[in-house]
Amino acid sequence: MGEAEPGRRISPVKNFVAGGVGGACLLFAGHPLDTIKVRLQTQPKASPTQYVLYTGTYDCFRKTVSKEGVLGLYKGMGAPLAGVAPMMAISFFGFGLGKQLLQSDPNIPHTYAQIFMSGMLGGVFTTVIVAPGERIKCLLQVQSTSGQLKYAGPVDCAIRLYKAQGIRSVYKGTVLTLIRDVPSNGLYFLTYEYVKCLLTPEGESVHHLSTPKILLAGGTAGILNWVIALPPDVLKSNFQTAADGRYRGLVDVLRVLLREEGPRALYKGFSAVMLRAFPANAACFLGFEVALKCLDWLAPTW
Fold it and tell me: Which residues are CB-contacts of 77 (< 8 A; sequence separation ≥ 6)?
């Protein structure tokens, strides 16, 4: 089986531009719940003398809005705002490039294995931007919880990290970002293309899907993406926000979390992630498809 779009020329350049539009849509739709997710993942473990700071997704939302206002949900958005559009642009570019490299004849549809591999290539490409952006975002999101405002903003955070330990500190958590993003990105694009084909009536083009069906395909892709991405994301968030020297390495993060909180710790923030995954990724793919159609109309020969 393929993705059922024979006869269409794949343009990594158009994918790049349209992916940037999709990334902007994803961020504005999903950042509030991303803030909640990170705070739930990194809150201190309950002790006999101290209760957990947040009992769940709604409690975290309520306390954040109560103490910091609605803008508190958008804390740390500067770093991903500067990074998410190019990140998604590069992700969709990598996906388009992978499809172009794996397709010898545009009239022959891709296999699902080719789509999965193309998606993984996009995950590799994005890590260069994602790793430092996620590191800065997590630190800014968590500092409000601790009550100590160490960083004035994304740029100040990046400068301080670089001055303290160089570029290595800025890119702390890169391996975990790769572990999270490469397989999940493959499943992300595979699910989207598969659901689109599933929703396309026989004899019709997959490119003529209605907006609700595109939203459904994109939202479903987002949910399955995070089902496999969440455990390494929990490890990454803890590793990137931990004090220097707390963990000896990536395996140590996993060992400490399992010892102190059990396997359920790997799915901390699950509710917030799932609540965010559908609308954010539905908005992302809708933005991508609309931008791609506009580009096809404006520059059909690209």
Answer: 27, 31, 137
Which residues, 6 or more positions from 204, have their beta carbon under 8 angstroms from its beta carbon? none
As beta bridge partners, residue 50 has: 47
Encode pLDDT of 15-38 as tens digits.
Answer: 999 999 999 899 888 888 888 888
- Which distant-in-sequence residues (6+ apart) come within 8 Å of 195 by Cβ? 216, 217, 220, 221
The overall pTM is greater than 0.85: no
Query: What are the φ/ψ torsions at residue 43 (nearest 5 degrees)?
Result: -65, 150
Could you please report the per-residue DSSP string of 128-170?
A: HHHHHHHHHHHHHHHHHHHT----SSHHHHHHHHHHHHTHHHH
DSSP assigned state of 249: S
DSSP for residue 43: S
